[in-house]
Amino acid sequence: MASSTSDVKRTIFVKWNKQDFLFDLLLTQTVFDLKLLIYEQTRILPDRQKLMGLKMKTSTTVAPLDTTLINDLNLTSTTKIMLMGTPEESIQELNTVKKQLITTVTEVTTTHMNKVQDVDNGVEVPDLSEGQDEEVNDTTTADPDQIPYEKRDEVRAKIQRRLNTYQAKILNSPRIGKKLLVLDIDYTLFDHRSVAETGAELMRPYLHEFLTESYKNYDIGIWSATSLKWIESKMKLLGVEAISQLRTTSTMYEYKIIFYMDSGAMISVYTKEFGLQDVKPLPVIWEKYPDLYTQKNTIMFDDVSRNFLLNPFNGLKIRPFKRAHFTRTTDRELQRLTTYLTMIANYEDLSLLDHRKWEQMIETGTFIKRK
């Protein structure tokens, strides 16, 4: 005899702060019941929880309510829900830290003020936030000569396979005569490791202003070393997709994202010094759009330099945006990079510029070629 709906359970996979949780709920239970179980494991109050990827069976645009039955959710065995929210204890600790910071700022010395000014002016200082170990280990020199000669045919074959099989998600049509800006997400546009109640708290300052100004001279593509699902979720969370796809009535920001590319477009290459490395080969884009994008008119921003190992002359290593709650008031990276992109917009061959010296270029107003 078939089981009634009231007896059937559904396992729901939830990911939060590098932790994975599995919750078994009856189909007759509700989203609020799920939130209560999440609270028991994370101490995030139900009204502070944001569940990304949770959708209705009947509509992908209508968000489920707390009263929505589990049976009415569009869930499969592979569905993964990303949880955003801050535990109540952490909020209380953060409020205490903020009060302490306010007191400290009023007593700060001139020396300390100069250090803060250095951060504001783009001088790199040690960052001891979560994920710092990953950044310290990013010592790979962006140099194709790191790849042994006997491995280079293998690399070319891997790129060709990506060209033959990989399909980017195309959102808007490319524009003739525009250069191409390829952007990473995690630590470049978004602090993906910190916990918060809203995406705005984790968004890098001046993101929408940066994209609006850049779009005047560049087509913009997103390439992240994660899955397409998480790219879409993060772009929705940050409000980028709504602006790009004209799903907002606001006219303050105007830009379009041309494509999303995920980890499926990356390849692994063997280097002499660092062994196997996952990289983002720009030829996958150039050979897909040979009449639009080339080595001469493309620039890629990423916080991990090994990602442009195969195309080092087109890569600019951006400072990672971490500890968003504490750094978003001083981070000016996107604001300054907007100036740089405007400066080089009419430069004929971007691969000739030494992008490592981008700050020096905007300070002196002169182009510096790589040697």
Structural class comes to alpha/beta
Largest sheet, order of strands side by side? 5-8-7-6-11-12
How much strand content do the residues show?
A: 15-25%
In round numbers, the mean pLDDT is 82
CATH topological fold name of the largest domain = Rossmann fold
Q: Number of domains in the coordinates?
A: 2
Which architecture of the largest domain does the CATH hierarchy give at level 2? 3-Layer(aba) Sandwich
Number of helices: 12
Under the CATH scheme, which class of the largest domain? Alpha Beta
Q: What spatial form do the alpha-carbon principal axes imply?
A: globular
Rounded Rg: 23 Å
Q: State the order of secondary-structure elements, H for helix, E for strand.
A: EEHEEHHHHEEHEHHEEEHEEHHH
What is the rounded distance between the termini?
Answer: 77 Å
* CATH superfamily descriptor of the largest domain: HAD superfamily/HAD-like
Q: Low-confidence spans: pLDDT under 50, at least 5 residues?
A: 101-137
**Mind summarizing the main beta sheet?**
6 strands, mixed
Proportion of helical residues? 25-40%
> What is the β-strand count?
12
Keywords: Hydrolase, Nucleus
Protein name: FCP1 homology domain-containing protein
Organism: Didymodactylos carnosus
Subcellular location: Nucleus
